[in-house]
């Protein structure tokens, strides 16, 4: 359908928050892109949320402020919202609707793609393999991110999850293959948006970054669109241009709250904690767009970042995210209180696909046994610390004290690093060895004897 075929409708019945209810329409479909011309002559844009007979509900991307039902004309385009895709996005900064926010011209590309996208067909999926190294020791050593994986970061409010997301986006790499990052920020303050731009300026200048920033004072509808734009751009860069793409989405809790607000405006029956009953399927429609496709180069890896209100892991957003994704990286207020950055609680964290992306031929031959032994030692150290609280530190054995020493060294020598410090994997694993060798030889039962002997000599 061309612009000359569009029919202008004037039967706007109601403006309801970010929604417009229009009647007397024909041939309108769900998710159809809409142009709205308002009384002052300006044009706004929207998407059909609901179509029932001759009635349609349209969400206005720019919001309905300043609009009046009597002087609003609506044209339905007959197709879903589409954006140009291609390498032209690299090095650009856009708002949550994909419009330039860097003073440059609109992004153009060799083709357009619908922003709704589709989850990857399981039949066509290639199992995730090979690591995406983040330069962050706590992640690379113990919760290795794998190409094609979806691995969320769970954070308490007030912890430096945005700083960690920006650090990962700035430092992440794959060995010797084309790589880029798509970073989507949702509901950010202007200070946070400026921080992200500064932190990622070098990667953007190198043409390895697409940055989409939605701030808290922009329309709530835009927040729902932002991650879909990011994933649509990433899919073309990965499967059209053969790049490995890391998509960082922060904060998914802000996204879910925007979804809840629109659901309430539509008058839908609320589910748990007033979120819509389709929150699970909606999150899955985003997360499942990552992966690798058989016969095609490139991959899409998704790192969603979300805050848990009140630190409640059973809150609907982290709870449902945990069901969909393949593990989690958990930030801990206790680690933060010890002055450790990033404050990762490694015993609560897990990468279920780590064995697909670590070990011989992928990272280092000693990586997996080293990680297993280190986690076992930290679990034992936690038990010893609880025992010391009951009976006093003076009653602990020498071996118990060695475990506490190992735990302290783990936090200060392996996990703790600067917010702009990038560590290569060799340095990270060597630090892990130095932490473990504080324990007696008889305690290191998960390490092969030959491997242990080689490092004892070293």
TrEMBL record:
Gene from which this protein is expressed: atpB
Domain ATP synthase A/B type C-terminal: from-to ranges: 357-452
Chain ranges of the ATPase F1/V1/A1 complex alpha/beta subunit nucleotide-binding domain: 135-351
Transmembrane segments: none
Function summary: Produces ATP from ADP in the presence of a proton gradient across the membrane. The V-type beta chain is a regulatory subunit.
Source organism, top-level taxon: Bacteria
InterPro entries per UniProt: ATP-synt_VA_C, ATPase_a/bsu_AS, ATPase_F1/V1/A1_a/bsu_N, ATPase_F1/V1/A1_a/bsu_nucl-bd, P-loop_NTPase, V-ATPase_su_B/beta
NCBIfam families xrefs: PRK04196.1
Region of interest: Disordered: 94-117
A Pfam family per the record: ATP-synt_ab_N
Name this polypeptide is given: V-type ATP synthase beta chain
Domain ATPase F1/V1/A1 complex alpha/beta subunit N-terminal: 17-78
HAMAP family per the UniProt record, alphabetical: ATP_synth_B_arch
Keywords: ATP synthesis, Cell membrane, CF(1), Hydrogen ion transport, Ion transport, Membrane, Transport
Gene3D superfamilies: 3.40.50.12240
Similarity-based family: Belongs to the ATPase alpha/beta chains family.
């Amino acid at each position: 359908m061309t612009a000359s075929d569009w029919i202008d409708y004037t039967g706007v019945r109601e403006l309801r928050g970010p929604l417009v209810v229009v009647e007397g329409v024909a041939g309108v479909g769900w998710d159809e892109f809409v142009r709205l011309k308002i009384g002052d002559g300006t044009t706004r844009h929207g998407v059909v949320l609901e179509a029932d007979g001759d009635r349609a509900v349209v969400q206005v991307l720019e919001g309905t402020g300043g609009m009046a039902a009597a002087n609003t004309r609506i044209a339905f385009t007959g197709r879903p919202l589409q954006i140009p895709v291609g390498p032209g996005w690299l090095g650009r900064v856009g708002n949550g609707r994909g419009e330039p926010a860097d003073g440059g011209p609109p992004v153009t590309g060799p083709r357009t793609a619908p922003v709704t996208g589709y989850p990857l067909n399981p039949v066509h999926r290639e199992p995730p393999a090979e690591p995406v190294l983040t330069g962050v020791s706590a992640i690379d050593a113990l919760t290795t991110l794998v190409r094609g994986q979806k691995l969320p970061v769970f954070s308490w409010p007030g912890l430096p999850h945005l700083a960690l997301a920006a650090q990962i986006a700035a430092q992440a790499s794959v060995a010797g293959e084309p790589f880029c990052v798509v970073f989507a920020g949702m509901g950010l303050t202007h200070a946070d948006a400026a921080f992200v731009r500064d932190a990622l300026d070098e990667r953007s200048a190198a043409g390895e970054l697409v940055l989409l920033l939605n701030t808290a004072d922009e329309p709530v509808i835009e927040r729902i669109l932002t991650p879909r734009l990011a994933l649509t751009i990433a899919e073309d860069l990965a499967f059209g241009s053969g790049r490995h793409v890391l998509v960082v989405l922060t904060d998914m809790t802000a996204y879910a709250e925007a979804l809840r607000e629109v659901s309430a405006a539509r008058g839908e029956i609320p589910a748990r904690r007033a979120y819509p009953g389709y929150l699970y399927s909606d999150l899955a429609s985003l997360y499942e767009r990552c992966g690798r496709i058989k016969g095609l180069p490139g991959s899409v890896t998704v790192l969603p970042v979300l805050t848990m209100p009140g630190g409640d892991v059973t809150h609907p957003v982290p709870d449902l995210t945990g069901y969909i994704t393949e593990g989690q990286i958990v930030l801990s207020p206790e680690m933060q209180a010890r002055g450790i950055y990033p404050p990762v609680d490694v015993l609560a964290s897990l990468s279920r696909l780590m064995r697909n992306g670590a070990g011989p031929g992928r990272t280092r031959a000693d990586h997996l046994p080293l990680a297993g032994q280190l986690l076992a030692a930290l679990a034992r150290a936690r038990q010893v610390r609880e025992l010391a609280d009951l009976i006093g530190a003076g009653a602990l054995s020498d071996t118990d004290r060695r475990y506490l020493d190992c735990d302290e060294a783990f936090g200060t020598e392996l996990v703790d690093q600067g917010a702009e410090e990038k560590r290569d994997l060799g340095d990270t694993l060597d630090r892990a060895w130095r932490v473990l060798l504080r324990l007696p030889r008889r305690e290191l039962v998960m390490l092969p004897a030959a491997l242990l002997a080689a490092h004892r000599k070293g």
